[in-house]
Amino acid sequence: MISPRFGRLALAPLLIMLVGSVGSAAPPNVIFFIADDVSWNDFGCYGNQAARTPNIDRLAENGIRFDQAYLTASSCSPSRSSIITGRYPHNNGKAAELHQPISVHLPWFPERLRQAGYYTALSGKHHMTSTEPGEGQSGRPTAFDHVDAGRVKGNSGGSANWLQVTQQRPKDQPFFFWFASYDAHRGWDGDGQWNEQAYGPIHRPADVVVPPFLSDDPQTREDLASYYNEVTRFDYHIGVVVEELRRQGVLDQTLLFVLADNGRPFPRAKTRLHDSGMKTALVAHWPDGIAWTGASDQLVSVIDLAPTVLSVAGCEIPETFQGVSMVPLLKDPQASIRRYAFSEHNWHDYEAFGRGVRDGRFLLVFNQRVSLPWQGPADSVRSPSHQRLRALQQSGKLTAAQADVFLAPRPAVALYDTQNDPNQLVNLAGSEPFAEVEERLVGVLERWMEETGDSVPDKLSPDTFDRQTGERLPKRSIDAEGAMTPGEDRGADQINAPGPR
């Protein structure tokens, strides 16, 4: 899978020096393209034959496609907060849960870039805040010189201003752009704003790929086709920015990352610890700084992005960061930076506490709310796809894969061989042939929880939506008094230990 760039073999040692010895050359520009609610295998370069992503596919062909990249949370704001601080969700304070702020003392990596002379901009979905400073505390420094929501009439996908931001940037500074779309978050608006001249033909329901845990019916296929349309719109605007960078003559000096904050907003994806929710596409493109191209099967976590960017920019990495720089992976396809990747499932519309650890082949899931189903967030529950599964449930026609959407009680420990069971449908926990693997990963997960200050509070944030309909519950029925976020009782936001890696 490894293909050295034609004509650049003689430059490989120089490139390695450039990446490994920051400060020896002008710092690179950096752009994050972050999709909203898109699963890892819904890009063409990851094997999806139906979803059109030609621009991302070209970046992958001429860069590195990471095949073992994992999120720390399959939930919008906790995931984004984790990326920007380089920390696990429970180590970010209240931000472990949806729509909650990051503890104010924790630095964001764009702050450090800005202080180092970068022009920084956020265009599109933000979804990150800090707590108000307490007595004796200072507020966070400005992270972004420019912020806009990326929406205009005819394009509410969050990507409408990316080209303008790229064109109007100061030309005498390196830049960092956090380009975050709302595509493909429900409810779908891409269908009504479709520009066939730009995006190509609308996706046909007959062509979509229906995973085994969904119902293969007209309503679900239409739902997936609308989702694919938003994935394609995200891809199109990446291509617009790439062409502008090429026109400006700075594409080769710009490190691009393409990823998503969590899995698709369908049953058994978003908020799940399984790969359909927690695995992310991750494409890196940087002609002047990547020494090889192809597919990498090395394990990475999105908390590794922050130290990577600061490393190549020549900035000091804060002691609060728990991730590790990916620079060695950009130099050498055989390099490795971690043995394990960890993920969390905390409150997102519904009470939950789940933890996961991966070693590259096996996924072990730990669940402390076994009586509750993992049906997905409220927007997914309200979807046609989920409601079609409910109809099958009521008529007793669910397959085993589909029934997992409603399963309760759930196992406290589950073990999956992701290599031979890509959809994680067969629980190997308690199986004698895998007893050693289970024991090892349980020990690793327990050590990680202990060293990073994770905990299971006596009372977690309760459900705020109905689990059957996805409708909001009356406030009078919600008892949140005394609820705590994971790790809050142990002061986990003050703990910088990364745990095993």
From TrEMBL:
InterPro entries documented for this protein: Alkaline_phosphatase_core_sf, Sulfatase, Sulfatase_CS, Sulfatase_N
UniProt family annotation: Belongs to the sulfatase family.
Q: Which Pfam families match?
A: Sulfatase
Q: Which GO terms describe its molecular function?
A: arylsulfatase activity; metal ion binding
Q: Region (Disordered): which ranges?
A: 126-159, 452-501
State where composition is biased (Basic and acidic residues).
Answer: 456-479
Protein's organism: Roseiconus nitratireducens
What protein name applies here? Answer: Sulfatase
Where's the Sulfatase N-terminal domain?
28-314
- Keywords of this protein's UniProt record, alphabetized? Calcium, Hydrolase, Metal-binding, Signal
Residues in the signal sequence = 1-25
